[in-house]
Write a structure and sequence with these properties.
mainly beta, three-stranded mixed beta sheet, 155 residues
Length: 155
């Protein structure tokens, strides 16, 4: 989430908020695997009788340094992204990114730019688990400065 500037994987504005949300998807058992340069054994099929996992709320993943959900019908960051960097209240586990991007430290909580929450869910709805190839909706709760006309979000 950035104030002005150009699309970038790691903008450095003092009002920018960088957050990632990791979610796991099921393998599409009907998809054809890509060819390999040498013959391989077919993969062991996943059991097909497993009930859908339903909506998931992320927990912080120490290895990835971001909120992460297990397989489910949706992934909700919960309160793990609330705030921006060191601005009070401090964003838990900041900066919550897979790369070395840091959050800007200028401004005030809920007066200037911040991402408070991200939810990824299946466009088709229902409780079936997110699966490879699904079309998803990304919903973000953000705070924009003033009218928001100078703010941009890149997914």
């Amino acid at each position: 989430f950035r104030y002005n500037g150009s699309p970038s994987t790691c903008s450095n504005g003092s009002y920018d908020d960088h957050d990632d949300l990791i979610f796991t998807v099921k393998e599409d058992l009907n998809a054809t695997p890509p060819p390999t340069p040498v013959p391989t054994q077919p993969p062991t099929p996943m059991p097909t009788n497993k009930a859908p996992s339903g909506p998931q709320t992320a927990s912080y993943d120490l290895a990835l340094k971001t909120p992460k959900c297990t397989v489910g019908s949706s992934c909700d960051s919960g309160a793990l992204l609330n705030g921006r960097g060191s601005i009070t209240p401090v964003e838990p586990n900041q900066p919550n990114t897979l790369n070395s991007c840091t959050d800007g430290s200028s401004g005030s909580y809920h007066e200037d730019e911040s991402i408070d929450k991200i939810v990824v869910s299946r466009v088709s709805g229902g409780l079936d688990d997110l699966t490879e190839g699904d079309v998803v909706t990304i919903s973000a709760t953000v705070w924009c400065w003033n009218t928001g006309s100078d703010d941009n979000i890149d997914f």
